[in-house]
Amino acid sequence: MRKLLGIFLLLVSVAAVAQNKNYNTKKGFVANGYDVTAYFDGQATEGDAAYSAQHDGVKFKFANKENLEKFKANPGKYVPKYGGYCAYAVAVSGKKVSVNPETFEIRDGALYLFYNSGRNNTLQSWLAESPEELKQQADKNWEKIKSK
The whole model's pTM is what? Predict the structure, then answer.
């Protein structure tokens, strides 16, 4: 019986770790701890650990109680596409690449985050190319890589 319990706990742990691979939690939180609801107001705002929530096995931070409550009421609306990995990288190379949480776009009611360092601002590349085509390609690629 103990052996079965041990195997069960091991399987649950493996499932939890696999699920977290679907999200970019580089700093322990989705979107590097930025408030995912604030993006929908056009702002990249760092969250406060005093206002945090867990959804789908990962943690989110919010700037204030109001934003935390907004998220709790409809988390699916605010979770970034592609688990918070760079939308452009997912589209073009099918890779999970970290982001600069201050580089984002709201498109069709969804949050997209992008890598931005030095001269490489992938949001600018995304916008200069065809965002709608890139979005379709990213959706296809995400299905292949999200659990890797």
Answer: 0.86
